[in-house]
Design brief:
Layout: H1 2-25, E1 34-37, H2 38-55, E2 59-63, E3 69-72, H3 74-90, E4 97-108, E5 111-120, H4 142-148, H5 154-164, E6 168-174, E7 178-186
Parallel strand pairs: 2-4
Antiparallel strand pairs: 1-3, 4-5, 5-7, 6-7
Bound molecules: adenosine-5'-diphosphate (ADP) and magnesium ion (MG).
Adenosine-5'-diphosphate (ADP) binds near residues 145 and 151.
């Protein structure tokens, strides 16, 4: 019964992620931009993941200056954070750290940008896999990812959502040391 239950939960997550990705890709879902109070937003989002982190004794740290705002689709922005933070927690051993930093990134062309850095002290990603991790269903280690409960679609959803916000995402990682995702998004749309 437990196996049937776990597998049906997994299928449910998979179907949910596939639906989500196809909606985002077909651009049938327009973004709803509104001002986001970043310190409050980050605190709220981190608190959603605290139980998951506590189970593994992982410390969640956030660093966001007061009075930092941006225009974004708040639900979509939350999806970006949740996917990256869940990965950070899933791929970091007990006792590690997952840190979020948000800061003004200066201007590129005409637009002011905000930089979001999500960094962990986890298992890292081998260099040869880095170019492929945003592909749908791509996983570095099938056995380990399966036990993490992921679907292999999280990062492709994140990448699409970042692009819908006209932003960029990059990843730096070192096996055994940790992984760092850096996102830059325009402040005004
Ligand atoms: N923070 C991270 N640390 C180490 N590996 C990661 C991290 N984030 C993602 N990965 C690797 O990239 C793969 C793709 O991530 P994702 O699209 O979220 O799928 P999954 O459902 O497997 O988590 C994961 O299977 C994992 O191997
Ligand atoms: Mg994931």
């Amino acid at each position: 019964m437990q196996i049937i239950f776990d597998e049906s939960e997994r299928l449910n997550r998979l179907i949910g992620d596939i639906l989500e990705l196809s909606k985002i890709e077909s651009k049938r879902i327009p973004l709803h931009f509104s001002p986001v109070d970043l310190p409050a937003f980050v605190e709220h989002t981190i608190n959603m993941l605290r139980p998951e982190a506590n189970k593994k004794h992982i410390e969640l740290i956030s660093q966001v200056p007061d009075d930092l705002y941006m225009e974004a689709d708040e639900d979509r922005l939350r999806q970006i954070f949740i996917n990256l933070l869940s990965n950070g927690i899933a791929y970091t051993p007990e006792g590690g750290k997952v840190k979020v930093r948000v800061e003004p990134a200066g201007a590129e062309g005409d637009d002011e940008r905000v930089r979001i850095v999500i960094q962990d002290t986890g298992i890292g990603i081998p260099k040869k896999d880095l170019p492929r991790i945003f592909e749908r269903f791509y996983r570095v280690d099938k056995a380990r990812s399966r036990s993490s409960g992921g679907t292999g679609l999280g990062l492709s959803i994140v990448k699409h959502l970042v692009e819908l916000h006209h932003g960029t995402i990059k990843v730096d990682s070192e096996p055994g040391v940790g992984t760092k995702f850096t996102i830059e998004l325009p402040v005004i749309h």
